[in-house]
Design a protein that fits this description.
The structure holds two protein chains of two kinds. By secondary structure, chain A is mostly helical. In chain A, 72% of the residues lie in helices and 6% in strands. Chain A is built from 15 helices and four strands. In chain A, the strands form two sheets. Chain A has a two-stranded antiparallel sheet with strand order 1-4. In chain A, strands 2-3 form a two-stranded antiparallel ribbon. Chain A is extended. The two termini of chain A are 16 Å apart. Chain B has two domains: 47 residues, no CATH class; 217 residues, MetI-like (MetI-like fold, Orthogonal Bundle), CATH 1.10.3720.10. In chain B, helix 7 crosses helix 9 and helix 12 runs antiparallel to helix 15. Chain B is mainly alpha-helical. Classes of the chains: A mainly alpha, B mainly alpha. Chains A and B meet through helix 1, helix 6, helix 7, helix 8 and helix 10 of A and helix 1, helix 6, helix 7, helix 8 and helix 9 of B.
Chain lengths: 341, 293
């Protein structure tokens, strides 16, 4: 394709991405280096019949003028990144000095908002992703062994947890595990503990969020594996069988190698999606027990006073996290391309 | 597979059936349960006394005189004006899908046909954009939208969603166009068509399966979005998902959690139909990127 044709064909989407993805990123980075102006405080002397008192008041005009003059706010450099709500450098050092052991240190670190968020986000990502892959594979093998007529309806129901809006899907589960819901009641009966409540227990809440995560994304892994199983080379399988391979050996040496590239693909997509975990925390009303990076941004932006700078700093740190997570894939793609080109 | 010839051990067969039954229950039961419960009053669906109340509709009968009630739906759709949110969602989805596909087919076609290195870089950058959580961009939008006075309106949300959708749309359509033989448009160009004419007369008539599949996923992205729409739409213009979230804040305290349950069921119903009619396209879309590697 000619350069000029390529240019015109891709121009509309390039503009869309430039304006609404690239520029916002730049703007987020810039914003995270500034803080909003404090209000200009002036001292006013009120003199009355009983002497003079000084009071402080906000100089509205001066504040407005200052904001007008520098709409971005006061340049703060990396101040926001190092404050208590983000990397908390000072607190980190203090905790390191005070704590008695690694466990104690991590426990205390989890009280700082940023570390609490990243702690949950990473745990969630690295527990949910492998479980999704394993569960998806098991379902795919099971469905593949079922009667042909049943497979269609099975795929239909399997797609539901994935297609349904995350916020809605997690609400549905949340209502079921509510202390007054059916699963909540069942759990209490099982544990024989009438006071058991998922809402009140951090550990249970984490488990519930991850159960939701696996439930939501297993269908994706299942569908991809199921499609992969349809294309397993039957000749190779037959040859293996004739050579006396057992069922397990057939799976181990024929099926699994065939599905390996699919696993990389699923893992990549799942890592990206799980890292942005957000909706279930809103639905489960779980912020007291678990927060994620996305939730932290949402919370900064949605509060009564919009903390744009704080949200921007968290956003930049999140983007860095995504970049680190993706870097092995990117490097590999780049190398592969280098080979073929 | 010819594995029927090779008989499975009974134990393995039983295990497979058990897996399937458990998964089917896990996947479908929550939805059926919530659908059933949405026609009950709160005292039944969230019953402290006895969970079987949901099945018998004890409280519902006592409160409304019938075992089923549409109170939740009436409350959500009329009293809380969920219909407005549903209409907004319809508009947003319609425009997001149309615009995304228009931009995406043009770009995806070019990316599939270009052999230069920059096409690869373009796709790689799109992949990086795809990986970023959309909410990280929101703090970049807000000050600008406030400044320009465009915050809170549907067209703003539509444009933003289109842009966020682009990387995914491009990747998907790019892989579909790769499957359309290059000879097709090249022979048209040999016959004297320009690139655009070849695209219009030769490619557009054969591209619909891929476009429909991609459109389904664009629709889902727009329909399911919470992070962006919750942040850049004001109360009047809210779409369904942020509206449900706002129910949680206002109605859980008033004891009208059933409004939210009814709204949730109403939001799920169109998706149910969508899977019913487009199951094959969804499956092929999910595997499009993967199987071809």
């Amino acid at each position: 394709m000619k350069h000029s044709a390529f240019f015109w064909f891709t121009l509309p989407s390039a503009i869309a991405m430039l304006l609404f993805i690239f520029f916002p990123i730049v703007s987020v980075v810039v914003q995270s280096l500034y803080v909003a102006h404090e209000q200009v405080i002036v001292e006013v002397e009120n003199c009355g019949p009983f002497g003079c008192t000084t009071a402080t008041a906000i100089d509205q005009e001066a504040t407005a003028a200052l904001r007008e003059e520098q709409p971005l706010g006061r340049f703060a450099g990396l101040e926001i990144y190092t404050d208590r709500n983000h990397l908390a450098v000072d607190e980190f050092g203090q905790l390191w000095a005070q704590s008695t052991g690694v466990g104690d240190f991590i426990g205390r670190l989890m009280n700082l908002p940023f570390y609490k968020a990243i702690g949950f986000t990473l745990t969630y990502t690295f527990i949910v992703t492998p479980l999704t892959i394993i569960l998806g594979f098991i379902i795919a093998v099971a469905v593949n062994s079922a009667a042909r007529a049943l497979r269609g309806p099975m795929i239909f129901f399997s797609l539901l947890p994935m297609i349904v809006t995350p916020l809605v899907g997690s609400l549905i589960l949340f209502w079921m595990v509510d202390a007054r819901g059916i699963l909540g009641t069942a759990l209490r009966a099982l544990a024989d503990d009438p006071s058991l409540s998922v809402k009140a227990d951090t550990g249970l809440m984490w488990i519930m969020l991850m159960v939701y995560g696996v439930w939501h994304s297993a269908p994706f892994a299942f569908i991809v594996y199921y499609a992969g199983l349809q294309t397993v080379n039957t000749d190779t399988l037959e040859a293996a069988r004739i050579d006396g391979a057992s069922r397990w050996q057939q799976i181990r040496h024929v099926v699994i190698p065939h599905l390996l590239p699919l696993t990389t693909f699923i893992a990549l997509i799942q890592l990206m999606d799980n890292f942005r975990v957000f909706e279930p925390i809103v639905s489960f009303n779980a912020s007291a027990h678990a927060t994620s990076l996305s939730w932290a941004i949402y919370n900064d932006l949605g509060g009564e006073t919009q903390q744009l700078s704080s949200a921007a700093a968290t956003s930049v740190l999140t983007i860095l996290g995504v970049a680190i997570l993706l870097s092995p894939v990117l490097i590999r793609t780049w190398r592969d391309y280098g080979k073929t080109a | 597979m010819a594995s029927q010839a090779q008989k499975r051990p009974v134990l393995l067969q039983a295990l497979m059936i058990a897996v399937l039954v458990i998964w089917m229950i896990a996947a479908a039961f929550p939805f059926l349960w919530t659908l059933w419960g949405s026609f009950k009053v709160e005292g039944d669906f969230f019953s402290l006394a006895d969970w079987t109340n949901v099945l018998t509709g004890d409280m519902t009968t006592r409160e409304t005189g019938d075992a089923f009630t549409t109170q939740g739906y009436a409350g959500a759709w009329i009293q809380e004006e969920f219909w407005r949110a549903a209409w907004n969602s319809t508009l947003v989805c319609l425009f997001v899908v149309t615009i995304s596909l228009t931009l995406g087919t043009l770009g995806g076609y070019a990316l599939a046909r270009s052999t230069y290195r920059y096409a690869f870089w373009f796709l790689l950058v799109a992949l990086i954009f795809r990986a970023m959580p959309p909410i990280t961009l929101v703090s970049g939008y807000l000050p600008v939208f406030f400044e320009w006075n465009v915050w809170g309106y549907l067209p703003t949300a539509i444009i933003v969603l289109v842009a966020i959708n682009q990387p995914f749309t491009l990747w998907m359509l790019h892989s579909f166009f790769k499957n359309i033989p290059q000879d097709l448009d090249e022979s048209a160009m040999v016959d004297g068509c320009t690139r655009f004419q070849a695209f219009r007369h030769v490619i557009i008539p054969v591209m619909w399966p891929g476009v429909i599949t991609t459109g389904l996923f664009s629709f889902l992205l727009a329909y399911n979005d919470f992070a962006v729409t919750a942040m850049i739409l004001d109360k009047e213009n809210q779409t369904m998902i942020p509206k449900i979230a706002s129910f949680l804040g206002t109605t859980q305290t008033k004891g009208n959690v059933m409004f939210a349950v009814a709204a949730v069921v109403s939001t799920t119903a169109p998706l149910f139909l969508l899977i019913m009619f487009f199951q094959r396209q969804i499956v092929s879309g999910l595997t499009a990127g993967a199987v071809k590697g």
